[in-house]
Amino acid sequence: MPRRVRDPQAFAPADLPGFIGRRTELSEVRKGLSAFRLVTLTGVGGVGKTRLAIRAAWEMRRSFPDGVYVVELAGLEDGGLVSQAVVTSLELQDQYTRWTPDTLAGKLADRRLLLVLDNCEHLLDTCSRLVATLLRRCPDLRVLATSRQALGITGELIQPVSTLRFPSDDAPRPAEALRAFEAIKLFEDRAAAAVPHFEIDEHNGQAVTGLCRRLDGIPLAIELAVARLRILSPAQLLQRLNDRFNMLTSGNRAALPRHQTLRASIDWSFQLCTQQERALWSRASVFAESFDIDAAENVCSDAALPGRDMLTAVAGLLDKSVISRDERDGVVRYRLLETIRQYGREALRKEGREGEFQKRHRDWYLKLAQDTHDRWFGPSQVECAKRMRLEHPNIRAALEFDLAEPGESHEGLRIAEAYRDVWRVNGLTSEGRRWFDRLLARDVEPSETRAWALLSASHLALLQNDLTTANRMLAEHRQLAADLGDVASASHRKVPEAFVAMLKRDFSHAIALLEEFVAQHRNSGELYWLPAALVCLSISYSLRHDREQAMNQWQELLDFCEHHGERWRRAYALWGLGFETWRHGDGHNAEALQLKCLATQRDFHDQNCTAICLETMSWIAASMGRSEQAVQLAGTAYALRSEYGGMLFSYFDEYHDRCQEQTRQALGETAYANAFEAGTRMPIDQVIRRILGKAPAHKEPAQDEPTEQLTKREREVASLVAQGMSNKQIAQTLVISQRTAEAHVEHILTKLSFTSRSQIAAMVAGARTGHKASDSSL
Q1: How far apart are the C-alpha atoms of 302 and 112, rounded to whole Å?
Q2: If you count Cβ atoms within 10 Å of the first and of the last residue's Cβ in the chain, which end, N or C, has fewer?
C-alpha cells in the first residue's frame, strides 16, 4: 500500500521543555528499540513512565519516516476499542473498515513507524493480542508501551522505570552538587514555576533534600508537594510531611511499596484541599481525559458545591497542581492526571456516590448529543464536529455507563443515534457501528428509540458496504415499526432501502424510493434524513447518466445547504456539480467547483469526499493538458483511499482509465511512475494547501544547491550516508564519535527539511548528476 511520509516535526509534545534528567533511561530505550521490536516501560503510578516514553519517542522520531504516534489508553474502558484508539491516533479514516488487530495490521504492514501505547495495564489482554498481531505482520513496526505490568509477549524487553535519584543522607552539599540529583533538579524546576526566582541554596538545600528523599523521588509526589510552596517554605513542607507521614519512618521503610508512598502524598494533597475542592476532585473523576467549565458546573455542582463556587474550586485545584489547564480554540479545558483521577474515583466510591455522578455525567453528554443533533444541519456544524472530537472520550465513558448499568442502555441508543453523521464526519464509522451493535444487543425491548437506532445503524453499515447487516436491521425495523404503528420511522426507512438499491446498481428503484421521500419531506422541516436522501438521489441520477436531473438534484442540495448554513453536505453538492460540469466540457468552471468543495471539506475528517474530489481534479487537469499535476493528484487520491479503505465507484473507471492512459502517453512511463509515487507520498494537508494557494508551488532553496546549505563536515557525512553507511561506520571513517555522527545526520535532516536518509542520498546523487531536486508541480 502506498504511504505518505509523516513530517517528524508533526510529533512535538507540549511538555518536552519540562523534561528532567533520565539520560541513562533514554539511552536504554534507544538501545532497546534497536534490538527489540517491543519495549515496555514498567513502574508504579506517578513514576514518570509516560514522560519518559514521550521523550524517548521524540528523540528517535527521525528513525521512523512514517511517524511516531502516541495512543493514550488511560481513559478507555472497552478493550474492544483499543484498535480504534490506535486508528484514531494514526489518523486513519475508517469509513469502510471494521477495525480489528488483523485489519489494522493490514494497513500498517509496510510502514516504518513507532507506536507508543500509554497506560496499558487495565487493558492488558487486549493490548497484548493487538501488539502480538502487529509485530507478527508488520516487520518495520516498533512498539513502546507503558504499563504497571508487562504485556507478556515473546520478544518483549521489559524496562523498569525507577524513581529519580536523590541524596541518600542529609549531609550538606553545595547547590551545584545537589542539582546533579534528578529529584532535586525536578523540585527546583517546578518550584521556580510555583514561586518565581526560587533556587536551591545553602538555606533550603537540606530541606529540599529531605523532601525528595521522603517522597522517594517519585516525580508526581514531588510535583504535588512543590505546589504547596506558594504558602509554605521547604522547611515547613518537610515538617508537615514528617508529621503526616509517620508511617513512612516507622519500621522498615525500604519494605514499603512505592505505590503506598504515592498514595500517602496524594492523601496529604487531598487533605490540604478545601471541602469544595475535595468534592470537585472526586466528582471530576467521572470525566474521561478532559472537561470544560460548563461540564463541571452541570455534572459536579450541588448544594455542597454550588455552581457559583465552581470557578473558585477549579482555581484552587489548579493552584495545587491537581488539575492541569489546556486552551484550544478559545476554550479552556481541564484534565486530571490518571493517578489523581483514580484516587478521586475511589474517594467518590467510598462516599457511595459514584453511580450518582456517573449518571449525571451521562445525562450531560446525552444533552450535548441532542444539542449536536438539533444544531448539526446549520451554521454551527463545524463547531459541533470539533467539540465532538474533544468530547469523544467522555461520550465513550457515557456509553460505557449505559451498557454497564441496568436499564440505561435505552439512553445510550439515543446518544448513538444522535451522532449518526458525526461518527462519519470524524472518521469513526466503525466505532459508531460498534456502539450500535452493543447497545442494540442490550436494549431489546420494542420502542421507537430502537426503531430509529436501527435505521441509523443500517445507514452506517451501508457506508461500509455491509449489505447483509443492513438488510437484517431493515427487516427488523420493518416488523418493529408495524408492531408499534410507527409511521414516521417507517417513512424514513425509504432512505436506507434506496441506499441498498443504489449499491446493487438498481438506480431506477433507488430513484423511485427517494423521489417519494423527498416529495414528502421537502417542506416538512426534516433536516436529518432529507440531506442524505438528496445525496443518494443526485448520485443515482448521475450514475444513470441523466445529466439534467442530476444537475437539478445537486443544485437543490446545494441551495438547501446554503439556506441553512450547512457545510459538510454542501461539499458533496459542489463535487457533484463540478463532476457533471466537467463531464459536459466546461473544465474551468468544473475545477472552480472542485476547489470550493475541497476548501469546504477541510474542516471535516470525511476522507471519502476529499479523495473523490482529488480524483476528479486529476481528470480535469489531464483534460486541460496538465499531465504531471493530474498524475500526482491521482496518486494522492489513491493513497488516501488506501488509508481509509475506500474504493472508486466502478462507474468512474472509464474516466480514471482514460486519464491514466492519456497522461502515460504525455509523460512517458518513467515520468508517470515518478509523478504518481510523489503524489502517494505527499502529505494530504500539503497537497490541499498548495491546491488552494496556501503554499507556493515550488519550495525555493536558500542557495542554488541544497548541498550549499551544509557545512564542509556535513557534506562529508551526507556523502557517506549516500554510500549506505550507518552512523557507526561514518564515525569510524571520519574518526569521530558515533554520537557526533548522529548529530551531523540530524542537522542535515533539519536543515534540508528531510525525513529520511534516503532523501539525503537522493540529494547527493542529484548534485553529482547536475539535477536539482524539485517539489511537486501541485
Answers
A1: 51
A2: N
**Cβ-defined contacts of 340-343 (< 8 Å, 24+):** 340/266, 340/281, 341/74, 341/284, 341/285, 341/287, 342/45, 342/285, 343/263, 343/266, 343/270, 343/285
Q: Which of 251, 233, 238, 248 is nearest to 212 (CA)?
A: 238
Residue pair 183/217 in contact by the 8 Å Cβ criterion: yes
SS3 336: strand
Measure Cα distances from 676 to 222, 511, 614, 663, 669 in Å: 54, 37, 13, 11, 10
Lookup result for grid cell 459514584 = 354
Structure confidence by residue, pLDDT tens digits, 481-538: 999 999 999 999 999 999 999 999 999 999 999 999 999 999 888 999 999 999 999 9
- Helix, strand, coil percent content, the chain, rounded in steps of 5: 65, 5, 30
Of 640, 632, 587, the closest CA to residue 612 belongs to 640
Let me know: does 132 contact 153? Beta carbons within 8 Å: yes
Query: CA–CA separation, 79 vs 101, rounded Å?
Result: 12
Q: Angle between the 354-375 and 338-350 helix axes, to the nearest 10 degrees?
A: 120
Order of strands, sheet of 290-292, starting from the edge strand that comes earlier in the sequence: 290-292, 331-336, 323-328
Beta carbons of 646 and 740 less than 8 angstroms apart: no
Q: Is the pLDDT of residue 254 over 60?
A: no
Amino acid at 282: S
Q: Which helix (H) or strand (E) holds 606?
A: none
Say whether 363 sits in a helix, a strand or coil. helix
Which of the four pLDDT bands, split at 50, 70 and 90, describes residue 251? very low
Helix axes 530-543, 568-583, angle to 10 degrees: 20
Closest CA to 531 of 544, 543, 522, 540: 522
Closest CA to 3 of 735, 643, 749: 643
Q: Which three cell numbers stand for residue 737?
A: 564519535
DSSP reduced 3-state for 640? helix
Taking Cα atoms as reference points, which of 278, 236, 411, 325 lies closest to residue 15?
A: 325
User: Comparing C-alpha atoms, which of 38, 15, 145 is closest to residue 86?
Assistant: 145
- CA 79 vs. chain centroid, Å, equals 17
Query: Would you say 24 and 702 are in contact if contact means Cβ atoms under 8 Å apart?
Result: no
Cell of 152: 507478556
Q: How many C-beta neighbours within 10 Å does residue 586 have?
A: 15
Q: Which contiguous run of DSSP H or E holds residue 84?
A: helix 82-90
**Torsion angle, alpha carbons of 11, 14, 17, 19, to 10:** -90
Q: What is the distance between the alpha carbons of residues 626 and 588, in angstroms, rounded to a whole number?
A: 13
Strands 68-72 and 114-118: parallel
Burial class (CB in 10 A: 0-12, 13-18, 19+), 165: middle
Chain-centroid distance of CA 275 in Å reads 36
How high does pLDDT run on average in the chain? 87
Rounded-to-integer distance, Cα 761 and Cα 742, Å = 16
Task: Give CA–CA dist 573/578, Å, rounded.
Answer: 8
Is the pTM higher than 0.85? The answer reads no
Strands 331-336 and 323-328: antiparallel
CA dihedral angle for residue 62, residue 63, residue 68, residue 74, rounded to 10 degrees: -120
Q: Please give the Cα distance from 303 to 9 (Å, whole number).
A: 48
Pairing of strands 38-42, 156-160: parallel
User: SS3 letters for 714-750?
Assistant: HHHHHHHHHCCCCHHHHHHHHCCCHHHHHHHHHHHHH
CB proximity list for 756: less than 8 A, separation 6 or greater: 5, 65, 749
| Nearest alpha carbon to residue 601 among 577, 579, 570 | 570
Contact in structure between 582 and 590 (CB atoms under 8 Å): yes
Residues β-bridged to residue 39: 144, 157
Bridge-based pairing state of the strands 142-147 and 331-336: unpaired
